Amino acid sequence: MLSKHETKILKFIKYIPVLVFSFFSILITYLIFLDKNTEYKKDIEQLRKTFLNNNKNKITLEVNKIHDYILYEKENSELQLKSLLKSKLLSAHEIMTYIYEKYKKTESKEQILERIKDALRHYRFNQNRAYFFIFEKSGKNIMLPPQSQMEGNNFWNHKDAKGKKTIQEIVTLLETKEEPFYEWHWYKPNDRKKQKKKIGIIKEFKPYNLFIGTGDYIDDYEDEVKEKVLKYVQNLKYSKNGYVFITDYNGKYLSHVEKSYVGINRINLKDSNGFMITKEIINTAKSGSGFISYIGTIKPDTKMPAKKITYVKGFEPWKWTIATGFYTDELENQITEKEKEIKNKNKNGIINFLILSIFVILIFILLSFYISRVLKKQFSKYKKEVLSHINENRKKDSVYAQHSKMAAMGEMLQNIAHQWRQPLSSISMLSSGVKFKKEMDILDDEDLFKSMDDITKSTKYLSQTIEDFTDFFNPNKKVVLFNLEKTINKALNLLEVQLKNKNIEIVLNSEDIDIYGYENEFTQVIINICNNAKDELIQSNLDEKVIIIEVKKQNDLAYISIKDNAGGIKEDIINRLFEPYFTTKHKSQGTGIGLYMSREIIVNHMKGTLLVKNDEFTFNNKEYKGALFEIMLNFNI
Fold it and tell me: Residue 251 above 50 pLDDT?
C-alpha cells in the first residue's frame, strides 16, 4: 500500500514534467523571438570581424608573397649575373684558344693577338654595358673597348675609387684560382665623372701570360631586376579589386593598377578626410609593416573613391613600400545578404521548434503515464527492500559500535588495573605499617596522621581515575563545545600508565582551539589511534619511542595530526586500515574495528576527514619514519 506522500510523488511524475515542458516550450519560443535582434546584431558583428580578419589575412599574405618574391630576385640577381659573366668569359676564352691553336705555327704573337682583339673588342652584352678586357700579368693593357683612350697603358699601380690596386690583386688571385670573381670600381661608358661598383670574372691565358676578364655594374644589373619585378607586379591582380602597388621612400609610385600614377611622385596625396596617404604608407613601411585605413582614390570596378584598409610592408634594401588593400564597402553587401539569410533561418527555426515542442509534449504525456504506472509497482517492491536493508545496516552499525565499545572497554579495564596498582599497593603498605607500629607500641601521632594523609591522597587519585573512566563511557551523545587540548589530555591520562611502562614518550603541541562536537566519541578516536601506535612501537626495537600529537588551525579548519616513529604502514595494506574487521594483529589482540569506528565517528558523526599515510620526520636530531593520521574538523557540525 502506497503512502499519501508516495502517491503525490507519482502524480508529480505524471503531470509536472508535461506542465513544466509545456511552460518552458512557450517561454523558450517567446525568448527566442525576443532574442533574435540581439542574436542578429551579434551575427552582424561577428560577420564584420570575420570579414575584416579574413581580408586582413588575405592582403597580408599577398604582400608577403610579393615581398618574398622581391627578396628572392634580389638575392639571386648577383648569382645570375655571375653565372652569365662566367658563361661569356668561357666563350671568349675558347675563342682565344681557338685562334691561338689555329695560327700559332704560322703567325707571330703580335699577329695572333690582333686577331684575338678583332674577334672580341666589339662584343657587348647586358644592354651594351659589359665588354671584355685583356691585360698582361705585368699590368700592361692589351685590349679595352674601342672608345677607350687608355688601351696600351700600364695599370700595375692603378687604384680604383676605393683605393684597391686592382691589377695586382687580380694577379694574386690567379695564383690560386683559375676563374676567380672580383669586385672593383670603374667608370661607366660615356661617364667619366664617377666610378661605379662592378663585379667581374678573370681567367688566365697561359700561352702568352695574359688574363682576360669581363664584368658588369651591379647597380645597372639590379635595375634590370627591379624592372622585371615591377613589370610582374604591374600585371598582377588577385581578385576583382585586388592589386598590389609599390612606391619608393620618396613617394614615387613605381607600380599601380592605375597606370597613369606610375612614375609620378604623390608624396602629398591625401584623402577627403585630410589623411596623408602616401606619407603614412612610407612611415609604416619604414617601421616594418602594419595596417592603415583611408579613403582610396580609385576603386578598380567603379573608378570611384572608396574606404580602404591597406597592409604595408617595407623592403629596406631597395627603399620600397609594398602594399595592397581591400574596400570595406564590400562588407555592406555581405551584411545585406546575411540579414536575409538570418531572417529566414530564424523564422524557420521558430516554426520547427514549435512543431518539435508539440511532438515532444505528446511523447512526454505518454511517457509520464507509463512511467508512473511502472513506478507505482516498483515503489512497493523497493520500499520493502529498502526498509529491509536499512534495518540490516542499523543492526550492523550497532554491532560495529558495540564491538568497538567493548574493545575500548577491555583496553580501559587494563588501564584501570595499571592505574590502580600503585596507589592500592601504597594504601596496603601504609595500613600494614600503622598496624605493625601499633602492635609494637611505637606508633606516634605524627606517623599516624602522615600515614592517614597518604592513604587519603591515594584514595582521591583512585576516585579521580574512576571519574575519568566514567566520563569516557558516558553514553551522552549531545553536541557540546569542548577544548581539543583538554580533551586530548584526558585521553592521554587514561593511557598514561601503559605508555610509561613501555617507555613511550608523548609530545603534545597544541593551539587553544574550541570546537562543537561529540567529546566522548572524539576521545575514543584519540585512544584508538594512540593504542594502535603503542602496539606498533612495542613491536619495534627502537631505543626512543615517541608519539607526536599536533593541534592547530589550518585553512579555517581544526587540524589534528598523530604520528609515531614505528616505521610506518606497509603500502599493500595502508588503503585497507579503515575497513571493518581488518587487523594486522592476532585475533586475541585486536578486533579490527577500532579504526573503522574512528573513521565513522570523524566522517559521519562529526562531518570531518580522517586520513592516514606514511611520513618521514626529524625528532631529537634523528630521522624517523612512521604512520601519520590526519584529522580535519569544522568548528561547527
Answer: yes
Which residues sit opposite 632 in a β-bridge? 559, 609
The model's confidence at residue 397, banded by pLDDT at 50, 70 and 90, is: low
Q: Give the pLDDT band of residue 591 (cuts 50, 70, 90).
A: very low
627 SS3 class: strand
Beta-carbon count within 10 A of 513 CB: 17
Please name each of the domains of the chain with its CATH number: 45-235 (3.30.450.20), 244-327 (3.30.450.20), 474-633 (3.30.565.10)
CB 625 within 8 A of CB 616: yes
Angstrom distance (rounded) from CA 141 to CA 134 = 6
Q: How large is the greatest C-alpha to C-alpha distance in the chain, in angstroms?
A: 169
Q: How confident is the model at residue 588 (pLDDT cuts 50, 70, 90)?
A: very low
Residue ranges of alpha helices (H) inside 104-197 are 109-120, 166-174
Least confident window among 257-261, 299-303, 594-598, 604-608: 299-303
Q: Is the pTM of this model over 0.85?
A: no
Classify each residue of 296-312 as buried b or exposed e, where b means 16 or more C-beta atoms within 10 Å of its C-beta: bbebbeeeeebbbbbbb
The candidate with the shortest Cα–Cα distance to 309, out of 69, 70, 58, is 58
CB atoms within 10 A of CB 92: 21
> With contact defined as beta carbons under 8 Å apart, do 179 and 82 qualify?
no
What whole-number distance in Å separates Cα of residue 549 and Cα of residue 145? 106
pLDDT tier, 422 (very low <50, low <70, confident <90, very high otherwise): low
Q: Where are the strands (E) in 300-402, listed by range?
A: 306-315, 320-327
Angle at 401 between CA 397 and CA 404, to 5 degrees: 140
Strand order of the β-sheet with 132-136 is 141-143, 132-136, 210-217, 191-205, 181-188
Reduce the DSSP state of residue 197 to 3 states and report it: strand
pLDDT over 70 at 383, yes or no: no
pLDDT of residue 173: 95
Which of 285, 349, 353, 346 has the alpha carbon at shortest distance from 24?
A: 353
User: What φ, ψ does residue 153 adopt, rounded to 5°?
Assistant: -75, 160
Chain centroid to CA 421: how far? Answer: 68
d(C-alpha 535, C-alpha 555), whole Å: 33
Cα–Cα distance for residue pair 184/201, rounded to 1 Å: 11
Q: Is 250 exposed, middle or buried (0-12, 13-18, 19+ CB in 10 A)?
A: exposed
- 589 pLDDT more than 70: no
Confidence bin at 97 (pLDDT 50/70/90): very high
Concatenated DSSP letters for 78-129? HHHHHHHHHHHHHHHHHHHHHHHHHHTTTS-HHHHHHHHHHHHTT--BTTTT
Q: Nearest Cα to 200, choosing from 135, 267, 280?
A: 135
What sign has the CA pseudo-torsion 605, 609, 614, 617? negative
Q: Quick check: helix, strand or coil at residue 328?
A: coil
Which amino acid does the sequence have at 549?
A: I
What would you report as the CA-atom Rg of the chain, rounded to the nearest whole angstrom? 53
Residue type, 122: H
Angle between helices 329-439 and 4-103 (to 10 degrees): 120
DSSP state, residue 620:
T
CB atoms within 10 A of CB 194: 9
| Cα 524 to Cα 536: distance, rounded to the nearest angstrom | 19
